[in-house]
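Bench notes, afternoon.
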Amino acid sequence: MNYCDTQWAERHEAIALFKDNILPIIATLEQIMSDNKDDGSIGRSFHKKICDFEFIITLFTVNKLLALTYQVSVNLQKSNIDLCTAVESVENVQSVISEMRSIADSEFKEVFKSALNVANNLNVTKLIPRIVGTQNHRQNHSTDSPEVYFRISLFIPYLDELSMSLSNRFTKHKEVLLSLQHIVLFYAINSSYTNVLHAINFYQTDFEDNFNPSIIEGEWRLWKSKWKLFSLDSSNSIPKNAIEALKKCNRNEFPTMHVLLKILCIIPVTTASIERSFSTLGRLKTFLRNQQGNVRLSGLALMTIHRNIPINVEEIVNMFIKKIEK
């Protein structure tokens, strides 16, 4: 089954649509096989693969577990998401996965029942792969029950792998991310130096001058004191994100805080923004626009990517009229 390799949201949508329409898909393949045309052999090959109980139970298992990560995948593709929010969302998914892992018997029973109903409609027998006692490179669980076999060999390992992947991608950086978050003004006024010490030690090679813990600690105390006094005035609004905090940070007065805020601003949660730019260029540079220059292509790409920025058409027309003809 061919689905999107880079975007998990589209991947789950493709699997969900395939699962919901598996019976019409089988009917279509059977019609292709009966027509005896050139593509009949391809249809017969797909039909044989799909009408296999191992494929059906895998499809239903993947669909159930990817439903947990679908909304997180959608949120991670947003351009304004920050790392701490992403980590909190992932931790919520991991807690649900841990709960499902503790009651794997009852959770998989529902999945197996749904897959069995589809298999019965397709006249597919629920069989387990042949068990070989001397085989060490495949699943060889000594059981005669298909439900027990696929729960041990498929459902539980997939839960563990999904949880481990999320942990490796997000939660192992949690300590550094939370430490960086305390640099932001909204959190800094209620934080201590120990809260940011881990980030300072982790990024010490990025500082301009030689690393001096005592000087950096003094700078942190001045940074915190300044914004504590600033917050006493109710009319002042304290920035709650890294970008706004960076605008308020004087680089000459607080060089270390400035570096840490820049790092927090530029750390990407995902590569969705970059992939979105590549997708835009693919749509813009068509066959008819193959000979356009870089200036025109960059202008069209910026207009497409940042379409939410309002454009004054009359101002652009006036600028175009005032240009000297070449």
